[in-house]
Amino acid sequence: MRPEWETRRSFQNLRPLASLFSEDLAIDMGTVNTRVYAKNRGIVVNEPSAIAFDESTGEVQAVGKEAKEMVGRTPGRIKVIKPLKDGVIADFKVTEKMLSYFIQKAHQRTTLVHPRVIISVPSEITQVERRAVMDAAYRAKAAEAYLVEQAMMAAIGAGLPVSKPGGNLVIDIGGGTTDVALISMSGIVYSRSVRTAGNHMDEAIMNYVKRKYGLLIGERTAEQIKIEIGSASPLGKPATMQARGRSLVEGIPRAISVEDNEICEALNECLSTIVKAIRVLLECTPPELSADISDRGLILAGGGALLWNLDKRIRDETGLPVCVADDPLYSVVLGTAKLLDDFTLLRRVAVD
Questions:
Q1: What single-letter DSSP state applies at residue 238?
Q2: Domain residues for 312?
Q3: What is the pTM (predicted TM-score) of this model?
Q4: pLDDT at 16
Q5: Following DSSP, what letter does each residue of 256-297 receive, concatenated?
Q6: CA–CA–CA angle 87, 92, 94 (5° rounding)
Q7: For the domain that residue 79 is a member of, what is the CATH number?
Q8: Does 15 share its domain with 64?
């Protein structure tokens, strides 16, 4: 018996009436944030990938931004879950509920919502994980669902000429994964996906502060430190930031001051992993495409691209020109959105 998503897709040309009540959506379902682009309306949802529910009743208490604000502040019966881990679905049922909520919010109604959706996924997602995403989309009332690779979408969103013969190298640093891909003629020549990205940088900062200062800080504090003074190489002008947490020794709240060079040290291992993935890709690149990359360089996308001096570090370690996409946070969802009007390109890049 064929899976539900295969059956629905086989009848996609027989639903003109249903299309009258739907609105196509492009979804960047990330580990940290989910962004939804509605055709003709732009980005209509940009919220954390989180959901809070009452364990005693099973009722959903909050989704997205409201759920994230509950992290570490709820009674025992309220549990906040981030259903995606390292770019893939860790909790199928919770992901389905979260996706349903975001689709309904994008349409601003709860009935007659059967959109055609395009969802971006990491490059090295397994067949089982692909099926889980497709099933979640259809259970969330999607009429048709297509999967596309995040690295390809980041390249399209950044304006790279992916359909032409020539090497385009893109590094998409998200929350759970970093996708490194070489693209030519609407196809991925070679790609690597490493599960080291923004969340792992936050963890590295938390562990560093715990080890050096004996202070426990939360995820939100670590993320704020990364955003404000985190860097891939020392900043030209020293910067400091106050961090508040709980002392491991005294067990009471305490505040410390951390410097940018300390955070740079804390992030070094994560960044070395990302640079290593780029080097491995460059070693596997055909000579003609290597010449293209030497001329064009590479482009950084995703939230991790905003880390101070990351472009400088990659440039120093690879010798290639490096630039950051115009809108790195939204490169993936904007690239996915372009496929809503170009089904010829969608057929070429969709994951089977």
A1: -
A2: 160-196+271-328
A3: 0.85
A4: 43
A5: EEEEHHHHHHHHHHHHHHHHHHHHHHHHTS-HHHHHHHHHH-
A6: 95
A7: 3.30.420.40
A8: yes
